[in-house]
Every structure is written in structure tokens, then in C-alpha cells.
Design a protein that fits this description.
11 helices; seven-stranded mixed sheet; alpha/beta; 3 domains; Rossmann fold; 28% helix
């Protein structure tokens, strides 16, 4: 409890992923916490996003004043930050399945190394197999009453974790990591880059000397592996399937948000994003940007969808190997997407980075300059104008 006010309980909430937000569950949980009353103790909540894809869902659902999205943090980092100034911690998530949700919670809590404070995980709250998990034993009557109150209000049982957490082992100098809850045909992303697709089960990633070398029961995408570079299979951020399953309330034209300055008609910085498109807001923040060039089909899909919220046009460089990672992605009208026909989009991206480095141009001048570069180098292409 707050040392300055014994009648105040400070509660820190880590919100993970878009589904818990798009489903309305995050707001519902906030409301339930604010309504809870025990021995006249007031609740003061502080929420932080854990992960990056959920940021767009926060924007679309107008929750920027409720959920802090100012920092790019993995869930365990968010939990550690909130641990410093709160009495009780929450982790709210909507995993693809009960198993993946429990596995996620166990990994996050173990990585956060929080052992002196109760962490309450609310998992898949609108599903029949939804649960409440308690990490670390509740320390007082208030915490027990709060847990039972949420269990009753959400109609969720309090259960033990069914997962052993990270499934990883070493054999013959290779490191193996098994993925849980991956369906056949789903894309596999490591650190924001698509590196393959599931073709069976169980899906097992294999690395040697910090390089991904195989996906057992998966089809590897070497193009993505090249972009990925060195990884630590114990720490790499893994996502599978559709990144945002139920997008709703798409909130466009938020271009006046603090930190984003974008003007098509005047000269500005030319930003090139060639991987991890979900981080594009970091790339453009506090810069005067005139053109955003995205390299790769998946990067273009993700960046285009995110930047459409701010009415920002993109110039995409693709070669037609797009994966299904977003449901019904949108793109700002006036954007131009190049389809490269006789070489890889990465090769064109390297060429453009070299030519456009430190350039200040308008959007139209950038577009025309790219056409000039491609024509000079005899690169065959088509353009989709949106």
C-alpha cells in the first residue's frame, strides 16, 4: 500500500497485445478495478503496454491517456518498471490458446525476476478456457479479496499454470526451441521479421552459432533469415500467425499527435524502413519527415497499416512474397507501391539507402528520384498507386 496513504492501493498493469484491447477486455478490467472497494481502500492504476503491435490498438481505441505507449518495452521490462512504484501487479493478455497464454505468462514473470510482489495474470477473459493465474503468493486480505472479486465478475477460475514455460535445449552444438500453439500455414516471425511458415507440428526452431539454420515442421524463408542476422533463441521475440486478429475502430487522421511532423509539400527527411515495420513510429518520431520508404512486402504491409492512422503516405518496395500477417491492412490514399520483377526487394533497398542517405526532398521528388534510379539500373517494376 502507498506509504503516504494507507487507504490507497497502487496497481500496475501490463497490457500485452492488440487482442486484449480490441476485445474490450482491457477497458472492462480497468473499470472493474476502479469499482472495487474494500475497507475504503482506493485503487490507483497505472498501465503500460508490453510489446509493440498493441500500440496501434491503443491508438484505435482511444486509450492513449489510459495505457502508456511512450516506450518500446517487452512485457517483462514493463512489469519491472511498474514494480518500482506499485503494490500489486497485473499482466493482462489474450493468447491464441490457453497453453500459449500460460506459457507467455510464465516466461514474462520469470524474465522479470519479480518474487516479492503478487502478479495477477488475466488470460483470455472472454473464452470458455479463460483463467486467472497468481504468480507469487498474495500477501494480505486485500489482495485475496481483489482476486476473488475479479474471478466472480469475470467468471474466470483461478488455476495453476499448465505450461512449463520456455521449451529449449541444446544438442550437437545446435540450440532447439519448440513453439507452442502454432497452426499449420501460419507465418513465423522473429524480432518482427518473417522467417518461415508452419507446415506441421511441433514447430521447432534450430540455431547454430546464433544463426537460424532450420525450422523443423516449417518451411524456412531464407530471405527473412538474412535480414534477421544473429539471434539468441532464448531471448528472441517470437510471433506466429496474424498479428492483429480482430482490428476494430480504425482511428485515422491522427497526424496531429505530438511527436509526428509530416508534410508532403515541403522538403523533409527521407526515412527508409527495411525490417521490423512495427517499430516505424520510433523511426519517424520527433523528425520532420516528407517520405517513408518501406523495403519488403511484410514491412510495407505493417508500416502502411500503422502510418495510415496518421494519414502518412508511403513508398513501398516489394517483390511479391507477402505473408498473411495482418487482417484487412489499410494504406493511405496516394501511397505508391513498387513491385520489383527482376531482382530482390532487399537489393533495391540497399541501392536506395545508398542514394537517398541524408537527402531532404519532397514526397513527389523522392518518388520521381526512385523511378530514375530504377530505370538507370535497368530494374523492371510495376507501380500500384493507391
Amino acid at each position: 500500500m502507498d506509504n503516504n496513504n494507507k487507504n490507497t492501493a497502487n496497481i500496475g498493469i501490463v497490457v500485452h497485445g492488440p487482442e486484449i484491447i480490441d476485445s474490450g477486455c482491457a477497458k472492462m478490467i480497468f473499470d472493474l478495478l476502479n469499482d472495487f472497494n474494500h475497507n475504503s481502500t482506493k485503487i490507483k492504476t497505472m498501465a503500460k503496454l508490453g510489446g509493440t503491435i498493441g500500440r496501434v490498438a491503443v491508438i484505435d481505441n482511444n486509450l492513449e491517456t489510459t495505457i502508456d505507449i511512450s516506450e518500446k518495452l517487452v512485457p517483462s521490462e514493463s512489469l519491472k518498471k511498474l514494480n518500482n512504484c506499485n503494490d500489486i501487479l497485473f499482466l493482462i493478455n489474450y493468447g491464441k490458446s490457453k497453453e500459449t497464454g500460460h506459457t507467455f505468462g510464465k516466461i514474462v514473470v520469470e524474465r522479470s525476476n519479480i518474487k516479492n510482489k503478487t502478479v495477477i495474470q488475466i488470460e483470455r477473459p472472454k473464452e470458455k478456457d479463460g483463467t486467472i493465474l497468481i504468480w507469487n503468493t498474495p500477501k494480505n486480505d486485500f489482495e485475496n479479496k481483489l482476486i476473488n472479486y475479479l474471478s466472480n465478475k469475470l467468471n474466470l477460475p483461478i488455476e495453476n499454470c499448465i505450461s512449463n514455460g520456455l521449451t529449449i535445449w541444446e544438442e550437437h552444438n545446435n540450440i532447439y526451441r519448440e513453439l507452442h500453439g502454432v497452426d499449420k500455414g501460419e507465418a513465423i516471425m522473429l524480432n518482427g521479421i518473417v522467417v518461415g511458415r508452419a507446415i506441421g507440428a511441433p514447430v521447432i526452431l534450430v540455431s547454430n552459432n546464433n544463426k537460424l539454420i532450420n525450422i523443423i515442421n516449417g518451411e524456412i524463408k531464407w530471405h527473412g533469415v538474412e535480414k534477421l542476422g544473429e539471434i539468441d533463441l532464448k531471448k528472441v521475440i517470437i510471433k506466429t500467425g496474424i498479428l492483429r486478429r480482430h482490428p476494430s475502430n480504425i482511428n485515422k487522421n491522427k497526424k496531429n499527435n505530438k511527436g509526428y511532423e509530416y508534410d508532403l509539400s515541403s522538403k523533409g527527411e527521407v526515412i527508409i524502413v527495411n525490417h521490423a515495420g512495427e517499430d516505424v513510429l520510433e523511426e519517424i518520431k520527433n523528425k520532420k519527415v516528407s517520405a517513408v520508404i518501406t523495403i519488403g512486402d511484410d514491412t510495407t504491409t505493417i508500416c502502411g497499416d500503422i502510418l495510415a492512422r496518421f494519414d502518412i503516405k508511403i513508398i513501398g518496395i516489394t517483390d511479391g512474397d507477402r505473408d498473411d500477417i495482418l487482417k484487412n491492412p489499410i494504406i493511405t490514399e496516394g501511397s505508391n507501391i513498387f513491385l520489383i520483377k527482376n531482382c530482390k526487394d532487399d537489393d533495391v533497398g540497399e541501392m536506395l539507402e545508398e542514394k537517398l542517405k541524408d537527402k531532404n526532398m519532397t514526397y513527389i521528388d523522392t518518388l520521381n528520384y526512385i523511378k530514375e534510379i530504377l530505370n538507370k539500373n535497368k530494374i523492371d517494376y510495376g507501380i500500384d498507386e493507391y
